[in-house]
Amino acid sequence: MSVQRERAREEAQFKVMRLIERDPHLSQRDLANELGISLGATHYVLRGLVERGFIKLDRFRQSPDKRRYAYVLTPGGMAAKSAIARRFLARKRAEYDALKREIEELGAELERGAGE
User: Fold this and answer.
1) What is the per-residue pLDDT across 25-50, written as a single tens digit (0 to 9) for each?
2) Which site in 20, 67, 100, 101 is 20 to 30 Å from 91, CA atoms measured?
3) What's this model's pTM, rounded to 2 decimal places?
4) Which long-range contacts (CB under 8 A, 24 or more apart) does 23-26 make?
5) What are phi and psi of 50, to 5 degrees?
6) How far apart are CA 2 and CA 17, in angstroms?
7) Are 71 and 57 a contacting pair, CB within 8 Å?
8) Which of these, 46, 49, 8, lies nearest to 27 by C-alpha position?
9) Residue 53 is inside which H or E element, if any?
10) CA distance 37 to 29
């Protein structure tokens, strides 16, 4: 798997775990809408998280619709989310630093060009 594809997968997993931690009663459709991805892609991410033991499914006990599930972050999921968050933050900081340097360079170029 390419590095870019792996990062995108990890970012989707991280976002799903954050949303589930905030509201375990979100449906797959709600998650898909929050993430801006398809329902099928959301199902794929959730299935992977369940298979890895990072989240578990729990039926709504009080819900009249017994097909509904709550997604619960497991202790392993919490640890994985923290590890992913550290990598995610490091990547975003590096992107920010690179963008900041580029903006400064462009600003300097424009100032030199304006002086001519």
Assistant:
1) 898 999 999 999 999 999 999 999 99
2) 20
3) 0.73
4) 24/58, 24/70, 24/71, 24/72, 24/73, 25/60, 25/70, 26/71
5) -65, -45
6) 23
7) yes
8) 46
9) none
10) 10
